[in-house]
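To: structure desk
From: M.T.
Subject: fold request, one chain
Message: Could you run this one when you get a chance? Sequence is below, nothing fancy, just the single chain.
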Amino acid sequence: MILDYLERIVANLPYGEGFKFVDRLLEVDEESVVGIYTFRSDAYFYQHHFKDEPITPGVLLTECMAQIGLACLGSHLVEGSQKGVAFTENHIRFLKTVPPNTTVIVSAKKEYFRFNKLKVIVQMLDEHEDKVAEGWMSGIMLAQKEE
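Reply: Done. Structure tokens follow.
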């Protein structure tokens, strides 16, 4: 039952398959979330970033952390009544690069959630549990329009 709920959160994210950076949630509760994503070598951006030695762009690492840490946790906190999240600010420190075919583990802890604004402390590890990035980010939960 909990697995169905976690899968439903990911399935309901407002991103198309070409821009969804969440493969699976491992856990979510009122205070935190943990999820994983694999940056596959056939992704379009590796052809150009960088041509001879591809690495994952930092903006996409940040997006992955935001989708897991803000969008997924936010969806859980507002019990699915959200349309999405408007990313408002962040401070992320990058510690190492992420080559193609790397699975990352993102964990986020809620710092606060009030007036539909969520702020989380977030970190990303690679599959060897080496820290890739850490910092904080915040966003505003966008409510569904009533019909």
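Reply (cont.): The chain has two helices and six strands. Let me know if you need anything else for the meeting.
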